């Protein structure tokens, strides 16, 4: 036991007992053992503590991501397995694939009509809530409620609300003399329906983030401005918005990353194919369809890697833009 | 009003707090008064937030024809229990199994993420070792990478392990979280004084013993938030579950999607009842945790 616990100690360690009185030999040994274990504990424990995270991330996060590149360079199917290296063939196919471009078009289209109104509305709500409002907690909770619901369940409810014949939304529009809209059938109308589902969930959440940033703006600035006769609207655009810039950029980046991977809402709305003409098939849905419906892993990976690069480029662009703006 | 928002003792102080307090002391100057228009706007927003959930509940308590009735019903009926019975008896949805799978996977993951995150967060915040800064940066980097794009090889991995279609496939890959480690590290820095750790060390505690008996109790408030957030995320997970599981062994979300996909005879009462059951645990969470979560989001702690 003693020998084992000495492990890496130099062989000279045998002479050590001379240093302590002969009678205390056992005690000294125990003490040395303790010091050894304590040292080992101090040295090794930190690594033991952080290693589960890094090991599991490496296996289930990093490896699949990197391996995507490898798979994308092969003709690889579920049944046939790896059918050999094909170089960039999958990427050539992708560039020529109308469905891929269509999916990008849909993803960006939904992104724009979802995120722009969402963030503007969130800012308006935050501005409203930063006034002296009674029952402010009730309103805050009300804003957060959609964030804490089941995405799939809510998408099911909205799909029914957007029904052509029996949906409440067409019913309500009927009172304004608007003919029933086939929400699922058209390109733009289906985008609007999906954007509404996304915004319903995320607007309040973003409003709370803006609200936090707004309450950190020193009040004196507003006071000075109102003494100078600046109107509320002018104060909002010339003080609030510029002061919120870092927060706005943060929410834009987070929304971009999220929206590029939009999947659940459109799938519930009309299946992985994204409607009869693929009019609302996002890129994530196309990856899913190619890989798991058609079992074409190689081609699916090529799309996935392209989307990944796109997300990285967009995030970098956002970051670059924000530092430019800050510098200006 | 402001104080109720404060996270429980020991939680990181909400950033906006000092500003709000200052505003209060200043009295009526500075902060604009709310106009009736403010209340109308806010009430409308809350109404819109609430309405789809209310509608879900109304249809779930009525018969299958109720969703298309004109004028629409706005008040619950008496069919909820019947619908529940039909829901659990539906053979294509496997709703009972879905509930069990969701509850088990979400609970296991909540525990696992909290354990590994607090362990690593503690090490990164309070222990001295070579490569600590690099490791901390590494954790932040893992948060920035959209690993979801690796979904195809991840599925291949599950096939190699023989896990496809099994519940273990939605558990093991998500047992750690970069966000969790980051959050716990931040919390450790604020909530645990070095003297406390030194004292424990003097008493001859091993590092793990210090973690277990000193650090864990101090981290409790943050652990609760992280655990419930993880539970919520996992309960809600859809994409990966749809890829790796089958309708024969689903989660709740896959089960309600299954009801949704049977396109020819859409039984809205049944689908909405499933949706109510799938949403209910999250709503309970909302009422238990809502205020704390608002505090956390406003600190910018939650992405």
TrEMBL record, chain B:
<dbReference type="GO" id="GO:0055085">
    <property type="term" value="P:transmembrane transport"/>
</dbReference>
<dbReference type="InterPro" id="IPR035906">
    <property type="entry name" value="MetI-like_sf"/>
</dbReference>
<dbReference type="InterPro" id="IPR000515">
    <property type="entry name" value="MetI-like"/>
</dbReference>
<protein>
    <submittedName>
        <fullName>Sugar ABC transporter permease</fullName>
    </submittedName>
</protein>
<feature type="transmembrane region" description="Helical">
    <location>
        <begin position="136"/>
        <end position="157"/>
    </location>
</feature>
<comment type="similarity">
    <text>Belongs to the binding-protein-dependent transport system permease family.</text>
</comment>
<dbReference type="GO" id="GO:0005886">
    <property type="term" value="C:plasma membrane"/>
</dbReference>
<keyword id="KW-1133">Transmembrane helix</keyword>
<feature type="region of interest" description="Disordered">
    <location>
        <begin position="1"/>
        <end position="30"/>
    </location>
</feature>
<feature type="transmembrane region" description="Helical">
    <location>
        <begin position="163"/>
        <end position="182"/>
    </location>
</feature>
<feature type="transmembrane region" description="Helical">
    <location>
        <begin position="268"/>
        <end position="289"/>
    </location>
</feature>
<keyword id="KW-0812">Transmembrane</keyword>
<dbReference type="Pfam" id="PF00528">
    <property type="entry name" value="BPD_transp_1"/>
</dbReference>
<feature type="transmembrane region" description="Helical">
    <location>
        <begin position="103"/>
        <end position="124"/>
    </location>
</feature>
<feature type="transmembrane region" description="Helical">
    <location>
        <begin position="210"/>
        <end position="232"/>
    </location>
</feature>
<keyword id="KW-1003">Cell membrane</keyword>
<feature type="transmembrane region" description="Helical">
    <location>
        <begin position="37"/>
        <end position="57"/>
    </location>
</feature>
<keyword id="KW-0472">Membrane</keyword>
<feature type="domain" description="ABC transmembrane type-1">
    <location>
        <begin position="99"/>
        <end position="289"/>
    </location>
</feature>
<keyword id="KW-0813">Transport</keyword>
């Amino acid at each position: 036991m003693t020998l084992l616990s000495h492990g890496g100690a130099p062989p000279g360690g045998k002479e050590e007992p001379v240093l302590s009185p002969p009678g205390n030999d056992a005690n000294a040994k125990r003490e040395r053992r303790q010091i050894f274990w304590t040292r080992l504990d101090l040295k090794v424990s930190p690594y033991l503590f952080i290693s589960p995270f890094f090991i599991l991330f490496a296996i289930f996060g990093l490896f699949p991501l990197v391996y995507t590149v490898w798979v994308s360079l092969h003709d690889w199917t579920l049944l046939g397995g790896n059918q050999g290296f094909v170089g960039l063939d999958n990427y050539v196919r992708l560039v020529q694939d109308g469905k891929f471009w269509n999916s990008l078009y849909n993803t960006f289209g939904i992104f724009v009509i979802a995120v722009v109104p969402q963030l503007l509305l969130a800012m308006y709500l935050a501005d409203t809530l930063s006034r002296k409002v009674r029952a402010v907690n009730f309103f805050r909770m009300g804003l957060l409620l959609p964030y804490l619901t089941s995405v799939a369940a809510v998408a099911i409810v909205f799909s029914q609300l957007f029904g052509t014949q029996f949906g409440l939304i067409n019913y309500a529009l009927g009172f304004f003399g608007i003919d029933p809209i086939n929400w699922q059938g058209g390109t733009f109308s289906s985008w609007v329906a999906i954007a509404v589902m996304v915004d319903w969930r995320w607007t309040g959440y973003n409003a709370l983030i803006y609200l936090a940033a707004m309450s950190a703006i020193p009040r004196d600035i507003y006071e000075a401005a109102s003494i100078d006769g600046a109107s509320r609207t002018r104060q909002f655009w010339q003080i609030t918005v510029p002061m919120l810039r870092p927060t706005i950029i943060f929410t834009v980046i987070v929304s971009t990353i999220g929206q590029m991977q939009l999947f659940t809402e459109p799938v519930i709305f009309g299946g992985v194919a994204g409607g009869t003409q693929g009019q609302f098939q996002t890129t994530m849905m196309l990856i899913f369809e190619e890989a798991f419906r058609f079992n074409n892993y190689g081609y699916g990976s090529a799309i996935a890697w392209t989307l990944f690069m796109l997300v990285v480029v967009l995030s970098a662009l956002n970051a670059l833009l924000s530092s430019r703006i800050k510098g200006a | 009003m402001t104080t109720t928002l404060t996270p429980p003792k020991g939680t990181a102080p909400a950033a906006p707090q000092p500003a709000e307090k200052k505003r209060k002391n200043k009295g009526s100057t500075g902060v604009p008064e709310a106009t009736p228009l403010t209340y109308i706007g806010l009430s409308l927003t809350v109404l819109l937030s609430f309405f789809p959930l209310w509608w879900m509940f109304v249809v779930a308590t009525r018969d299958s024809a109720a969703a298309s009735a004109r004028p629409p019903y706005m008040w619950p009926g008496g069919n909820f229990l019947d619908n529940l019975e039909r829901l659990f008896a539906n053979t294509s949805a496997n709703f009972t199994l879905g509930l069990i799978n969701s509850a088990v996977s979400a609970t296991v993951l909540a525990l696992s993420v909290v354990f590994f995150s607090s362990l690593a967060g503690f090490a990164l915040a309070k222990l001295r070792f070579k490569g600590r800064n690099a490791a901390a940066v590494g954790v932040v980097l893992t948060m920035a990478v959209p690993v979801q794009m690796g979904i195809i090889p991840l599925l291949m991995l599950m096939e190699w392990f023989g896990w496809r279609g099994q519940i273990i496939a939605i558990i093991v890959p998500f047992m750690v979280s970069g966000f969790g480690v980051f959050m716990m590290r931040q919390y450790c820095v604020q909530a645990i004084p070095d003297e406390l750790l030194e004292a424990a060390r003097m008493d001859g505690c091993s590092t793990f013993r210090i973690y277990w008996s000193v650090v864990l109790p101090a981290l409790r408030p943050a652990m609760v938030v992280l655990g419930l957030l993880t539970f919520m995320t996992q309960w809600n997970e859809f994409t990966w579950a749809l890829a790796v599981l089958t309708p024969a062994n689903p989660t709740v979300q896959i089960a309600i999607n299954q009801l949704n996909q049977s396109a020819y005879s859409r039984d809205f009462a049944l689908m909405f009842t499933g949706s109510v059951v799938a949403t209910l645990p999250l709503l309970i969470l909302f009422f238990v945790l809502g205020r704390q979560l608002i505090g956390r989001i406003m600190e910018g702690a939650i992405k």
